[in-house]
Amino acid sequence: MIRAARLTKCFLLFVVSTAIITPMALGLGDLLNPPGILEKIEKQDKFTIKFGLRGDSSPISHRKWDKYEGYCPDFAELIRSQIKENLPNKTINIEFHETSLKTRFRKVAKNTIHLECGPNTIGNNHKGTQFSIPFMSTSVSIMTQKGRRFDSNNETIGVLKSSSTKNSIKQHFTGLKTNQIQEYGSRAEAINALNHQEIDAFVSDQIILVGALKILGFDPENYEFQELNPGNEKYGMIISSKETEWLVFINQLIKIKDLEDQSQL
């Protein structure tokens, strides 16, 4: 309270002053450069980490009834346990926030969440955000019914709205026409369209396609997968571009979890 009162007083002095005084001279460093997540955790007795994740991206993360399962919920627990190990007197809670292809970058940039863990293809950074090191890799694949191959000359293919796979498929099949591409709001919607022969193929990340089929009760063995870029689709977590120390911490935990997962193989 004393620190907050001091900053408030300094802020008022800065606003009403006609003199040319730097904000730092008035003790406004924390206002212009607010403390990062790790600094907040260190200073507060209780802290809630707002953790963004998807509800439909098995095995990365998916919601089963009122519980999340997969890599990302496990990673959230790793964050909590590592902080508790180093700061045993702190109370650390995890609060899950469900995200989507459309909201993932915006929620991080606006500090609605402290990070987003999902099938985020590492590429160009969106404004106000940055990627962690890769935590998983897969391939963009074209999925068709068993015994079929996608013919780019006259067949239709489904893609997810706001995903990078639309560009991937256009680069791979340069002659593909716009009316051959159908956009869907979810993988379940696209898979159902494929099963009802409304489209001839669906393109997405293979590891997510297989997970989605299993959740929907379909056997992946009844489908064909044509890889477009084997192993080149690398996933990273989305973090605010202002959070340098938080990024280093998350990258270290990704390496720790990778070693733990390898030891269990």
Map the helices and strands:
Elements: H1 2-16, H2 29-32, H3 37-43, E1 46-53, E2 56-57, E3 61-64, E4 67-69, H4 71-86, E5 91-98, H5 104-109, E6 115-117, E7 129-131, E8 136-138, E9 140-145, E10 157-160, H6 165-172, E11 181-184, H7 187-195, E12 201-205, H8 206-216, E13 223-227, E14 233-235, E15 238-240, H9 244-263
Parallel strand pairs: 1-5, 1-6, 10-11, 10-12
Antiparallel strand pairs: 2-3, 3-4, 7-15, 8-14, 9-12, 9-13
Helix pairs in contact: 4-9
Model description:
β2 and β3 (61-64) form a beta hairpin. The chain folds into 3 domains: 2-32; 37-135 and 236-263, D-Maltodextrin-Binding Protein, domain 2 (3-Layer(aba) Sandwich), CATH 3.40.190.10; 138-233, 3-Layer(aba) Sandwich (D-Maltodextrin-Binding Protein, domain 2), CATH 3.40.190. It has helices spanning 2-16, 29-32, 37-43, 71-86, 104-109, 165-172, 187-195, 206-216, 244-263; strands spanning 46-53, 56-57, 61-64, 67-69, 91-98, 115-117, 129-131, 136-138, 140-145, 157-160, 181-184, 201-205, 223-227, 233-235, 238-240. It is an alpha/beta fold.
